[in-house]
Specification:
- 58% of the residues lie in helices and 9% in strands.
- The chain is mainly alpha-helical.
- It has a two-stranded antiparallel sheet.
- The longest helix has 37 residues, at 127-163.
- The protein is elongated and about 110 Å long.
- The two termini are 54 Å apart.
- The relative contact order is 0.14.
Length: 177
């Protein structure tokens, strides 16, 4: 008679002669995973019903990532693209508002109001001068915002060396689509 430790160890008989000794279910699964199945079909007397395997639960994997450093050249390139595109959108919107306001007569009313306020009869806006001024102001603002963004990224690099970076938790969802 063997000890309890002998019953837990896999035996070669369990792989070849299953009718001689009853095998526990855990051992059977382990043996089936290790041993290759024969290609021939078993006889109907020894055939077992197919084992139903439940799909594994949809597990989410979580990773923790820390952003320790930001490349200043990358920040500069992205901020230049972002702020120039923002300036272009704002300028197109301002020109569209000017055209709509001119068609509705709002610009003429503002010119009359300012003419009365300044006590001149011939006060008018110069459309080209206003557009150039708006472009110049927006270009200066874009340059300042780019410089501020790069300086902020440099400060982030300094602070992340002292205190550690921003910690992100990334969840990878493995559900089938």
């Amino acid at each position: 008679m063997g000890t309890a430790a002998d019953d837990l160890s896999p035996r070669p008989e369990a792989l070849t002669d299953r009718a001689v000794r009853p095998v526990r279910e855990a051992e059977t699964r382990d043996d089936e995973e290790r041993a290759p199945r024969p290609r021939s079909t078993p006889s109907p007397a020894k055939a077992r019903p197919p084992r139903v395997v439940a799909p594994p639960p949809t597990a989410e994997r979580r990773y923790r990532q820390t952003i320790n450093r930001v490349d200043l050249w990358s920040v500069l390139k992205v901020s230049v693209c972002f702020y120039i595109c923002s300036m272009a959108v704002i300028m197109v919107a301002l020109v569209a508002l000017w055209v709509i306001g001119d068609a509705a007569g709002v610009i003429h009313n503002v010119e009359n109001f300012l003419g009365d306020l300044l006590q001149t009869k011939d006060f008018t806006f110069l459309d080209g001068e206003i557009l150039r001024g708006a472009l110049l102001v927006s270009a200066v603002i874009v340059v300042l915002l780019i410089v501020v963004t790069v300086i902020a990224a440099a400060f982030y690099n300094l602070f992340s060396e002292i205190f550690g970076g921003v910690e992100l938790t990334i969840t990878e969802d493995e559900t089938e689509l």
